[in-house]
Amino acid sequence: MEGDAFVIPWETELERIKRIHDWTIYRFLQLLLFDTYYLTLARGTVRGTFPKPPFIIAANHVSYFDWVVLDSLFWKSGQKDKVRFIAKKKLLSNPAWRVVVKFRQSIIVDDTPNRAAYKEMFKILHDGKVLCIFPDGKRTASGHIEKFQEGVARLALQSKVPVVPVGLVGFFENWTRHRNLPRPLPRRMEVRIGSPIETASFSAPPQLNVLIAFTDVVKKAIEDLLDGVGVQT
């Protein structure tokens, strides 16, 4: 049970049982989706490395794998407490994903984050942690990157933290939103990590045209990664 992770003196027995229950479900999902499917069956690889926090991860959102694989990279490196994810409220309607969202203390938002959600995101970055966001806001139906929202740009420019673009390759082909289960014989999968996009050359406080320009830079960086350009060596 990972050492003393399950020893919290002030929690009740019921709280402890629930936490262990949620931990067990999430670790099972990691074992199934990351260790077994991604690493073993799909021979998944990672190209590039993440910089020292704080920073924002911006990745294309293409499959059910995206979240678990990215989160597992931090778990495997002993930094599971460093990363937080943004989650749509509708995920709470799925019993398994509800456990994942709450266990990983994700920031729950509607289609548009409210003031309280933004406040929590800024605090995460201020505390020197990592915030993972899928700028298109939903899993693609076509496999191609869809329109990006400006939330990543707003957070990065106001917090003055870099954005690390990430391209998820082969994820869509193995588990699209149109399939209930992943492909039994998966294609090769890869996480491609790009160089950090710094905010220094963009004006602050950001106006709409600046937010749009920065968003376009992030989107282009992810598109290049998917094409094999700009991958860290």
Short description:
This protein has 7 helices and 7 strands. The protein is of the alpha/beta class.
Topology diagram in text:
Blueprint: H1 13-41, E1 45-47, E2 55-59, H2 65-76, E3 83-88, H3 95-103, E4 107-109, H4 115-126, E5 130-133, H5 151-159, E6 163-169, H6 171-174, E7 190-193, H7 208-226
Parallel strand pairs: 1-7, 2-5, 2-6, 3-4, 3-5
Antiparallel strand pairs: 6-7
Helix pairs in contact: 1-2, 1-3, 5-7
Structural description of this entry:
This protein has 233 residues and is of the alpha/beta class. It has a single domain, classed as Glycerol-3-phosphate (1)-acyltransferase (3-Layer(aba) Sandwich). The chain contains 7 helices and 7 strands. A 7-stranded mixed sheet has the order 1-7-6-2-5-3-4, with helices on both faces. Strand 3 (83-88), helix 3 and strand 4 (107-109) form a beta-alpha-beta unit. Helix 1 (13-41) crosses helix 2 (65-76) and helix 1 (13-41) packs across helix 3 (95-103). The protein is globular, with a radius of gyration of 18 Å. 35% of the residues are buried. The model has no long low-confidence stretch (mean pLDDT 89).
